[in-house]
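*** Residues and shapes ***
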Amino acid sequence: MTIATRLTPEDIKSAQAAEPKIRERDLANKLGISEGEFTAAWDGDGVTRLMPELDTILPRLEAIGELMALSRNEHAVHEKIGVYDNYTPRERVAMFLGKAMDLRIFRAHWVHAFAVEKVSGDTVRRSIQFFDAHGDAVHKIHFRQNSDLAAWQKLVDDVRMPAGASVPGFAPHAEKASMPEPTGDQIAELRQRWAAIEDTHEFQGMIARLGFKRLQAIRVMGEEFTWRVADDAMEAVLNIAANEQVPLMVFVRNPGILQIHSGTVTNIKRTGDWLNVMDPDFHLHLRTAGIAECWAIRRPSKEGDVLSVEAYDGEGNRILLVNGIWSAEQANRPDWQMLVRGLPRHAA
């Protein structure tokens, strides 16, 4: 068996010097390493390793002022611009519940942290980047023109990893276990419990307790609650919502974070495989070529039906979820319900 030679920081820097125009994430993939491992190679050369102490770092972001929050998965990038306010440091899932930043932070996955400075001419681009145990990007915080540089630098200095401190390595991904096919009894119980849901926040936990992956449950529910729509339905959702100014909730998740935009979208542009929302305080970049299935979902609640549209990749991972705005009095607005129910069905 051939054992792969581990790349040194010098190897990684040489590879970047040879291909300076390639995106760092893409170069890391090409080299067979994680983005976190690529970033760590520059420690001491524009990169500072930080102690990933979330309850120290995250509450202090508010004092820095306007920042950009970036969370992504393989096929969607979600960017929000604003202030990181209203932090709630819960034990397993911390939260930001601010006007701009609406985040659910799954703490166990925030393992590595770096402050990154990139110099281009007279411009310095600054960010704080978090990675999981495997080196996959969890969340990035980008400095903005209106950010407070003194508060930013003081934070970085205060959480800088001490010289000589022991730091974790990057673990390889475990092989994914296949999900067993559900039994008839499991499906019957799923349908019974789904129909009885009164609070949509119970939905994901209910599915997991019954032993289903999310897409697996969606596929077996039947058209009363789930129906497959055209694979390009997300493009229709965003364009119709923009044209008719239907407010939305747009969710992008990776294992370490769920990032949410609530409000309208306006400026929709396509660039090759990427469908983009480019609004003043919200950017979304959706690689539509990565979408293998789109589903419309109906979940009951005390306030009425909650409708959503969800896009999945070929491995069953959720790329994007879009909900209508709901309140204590009304689950979904009529314009959102009409939009979802009018989407073209998938041609079986």
